[in-house]
Design goal:
By secondary structure, the protein is α+β, with helices and mostly antiparallel strands. The chain folds into two domains: 144 residues, Up-down Bundle (Four Helix Bundle (Hemerythrin (Met), subunit A)), CATH 1.20.120.450; 198 residues, Alpha-Beta Complex (paralog of FGE (formylglycine-generating enzyme)), CATH 3.90.1580.10. The chain is 30% helix and 11% strand. The chain has ten helices and twelve strands. Helix 1 packs parallel to helix 5 and helix 2 packs parallel to helix 4. The longest helix is centred in the first third of the chain and has 24 residues. The radius of gyration is 21 Å and the shape is globular.
Length: 423
């Protein structure tokens, strides 16, 4: 077994611990709840993570036969309900949790006894780590009384974040990943250079304080700030504020993972792409393109580019909260050590950032033969690229080329934004 394979095995074992701990947060009688209407019940994900690993890795194992083909199919794929109705299954449609855990145990035991290609192991690893984050989105929407409370890292102190704009001169941004043996998902290839005109960008993500001004100014009542599709979505669902906010006794609260607290004004606002775009129009700006975001994050005045906004040093706690460091955000200006060469703050961790770029293939794209639908199924013009990462994003996915994507009207992501002007 080579060192790359051994490292992937070790990291996969650690990722299993992360996802196991997530399910431990859920009270036993809540496992069949559906905290987000557009998604499966929590119980699906209990089986999905092992079923994915099994369906990915078993075909390359000699003399290993399926032992529960029904579970292999049942837990194979999640939901992305663009253009479709909401799921209508009931708790009784799903197997007992003990049956699923028994299946999981046997899957792990069998896979751990086999030899696997290191790239497929890394695919299984990152798939699980992605779900460690997206499961947090679901658990965040689970009522407080239906989950166990877990302590988290303290909120770092900071002064009030003052609005500041950074001028980014014209230049080039390198997007994507070179085919040099490094692991990447199919949508990360190929590396290419994109010319970027000069523009101005917010130093910090838009805060709850700033978004509250948009709301008080009637932003949710004026169709002029919204696209037709976003206005229809907002109206049909009677959406009048961010999903993480709650109105009580005339005051706004923020729904943390385990509590409800007075609205933290200097935390980044978490909203859908549609809400972010409406705010940007109200503020006289727009969302950055993927290339503009790259230029602001990784570019430098001398024309060079960095691996991370702050340089080539690996991400550490001084740069921000990520790699499961916290459940909830921190102030947008809490980590000056994470500042980019141009002076833009908070680009990694503390919330993904919406861009104006539809999720699409780079030139040279080819679907991975072991997971052909991973990206290609979403090159439909109805998903948008997010960059950066949140406090629940694994460290290995903070690489410059990693691309996240979601539907424009999905509110539950730990995703904020910043505005650009010019160009």
């Amino acid at each position: 077994m080579n060192s790359r394979t051994m490292n992937s095995r070790t990291m996969l074992a650690e990722a299993r611990e992360q996802t196991d701990k997530l399910f431990d947060l859920v009270l036993p009688d809540s496992l069949y709840d559906r905290p987000i209407a557009e998604r499966h019940r929590l119980v699906f994900y209990l089986g999905h993570l092992e079923a994915f690993d099994w369906n990915l890795l078993r075909p390359n194992m000699r003399k290993v036969e399926a032992f529960n083909a029904g579970f292999d199919r049942l837990f194979a794929f999640g939901i992305d309900p663009v253009g479709g109705g909401l799921p209508s299954d009931t708790p009784s449609d799903w197997p007992a949790a003990d049956e699923i855990r028994s299946y999981n145990h046997r899957v792990r035991q069998t896979l751990d006894d086999g030899e696997h290609d290191s790239r497929l192991l890394h695919m299984a690893l990152e798939h699980r780590l992605m779900h460690a984050e997206t499961l947090a989105y679901m658990l965040h929407q689970l009522p407080l009384e239906r989950k166990h409370v877990e302590a988290q890292a303290p909120i770092p102190g900071s002064e009030t974040a003052r609005r500041d704009v950074i001028e980014i001169p014209a230049g080039c941004a390198t997007l994507g990943l070179a085919r040099n043996g490094a692991f990447g998902w199919d949508n990360e290839f190929d590396a290419h250079r994109a010319a970027v005109d000069g523009f101005a960008i917010d130093r910090y993500k838009v805060t709850n304080r700033e978004y509250l001004r948009f709301m008080k100014a009637g932003g949710y009542r004026d169709p002029g700030f919204w696209t037709d599709a976003a206005w229809l979505w907002k109206t049909e669902r009677d959406i009048s504020h961010p999903v993480f906010w709650k109105r009580a006794s005339g005051e706004w609260l923020w729904r943390t993972m385990f509590d409800e607290i007075p609205l933290p004004l200097d935390w980044p606002v978490y909203v859908s792409h549609g809400e972010a775009s409406a705010y940007a129009r109200w503020a006289g700006g727009r969302l950055p393109t993927e290339a503009e975001w790259h230029r602001a994050a990784y570019g430098a005045p001398d024309g060079s580019e960095r691996q991370f906004p702050w340089g080539d040093e690996a991400p550490g706690p001084q740069h921000g909260y990520f790699n499961f460091a916290r459940w909830d955000p921190a102030p947008v200006n809490a980590f000056s050590a994470g500042r980019s060469a141009f002076g833009v703050d908070g680009l990694l961790g503390n919330g993904w950032e919406w861009t104006a770029s539809p999720f699409a293939a780079f030139r040279g794209f080819g679907p991975h033969p072991s997971y052909a639908g991973y990206s290609a199924d979403f090159f439909d013009g109805r998903h948008y690229v997010l960059k950066g990462g949140s406090s629940r994003t694994a460290g290995c996915m903070l690489r410059r080329s990693f691309r996240n994507w979601f539907q424009p009207h999905y509110q539950y992501v730990y995703a904020g934004f910043r505005c650009v002007r010019g160009a």
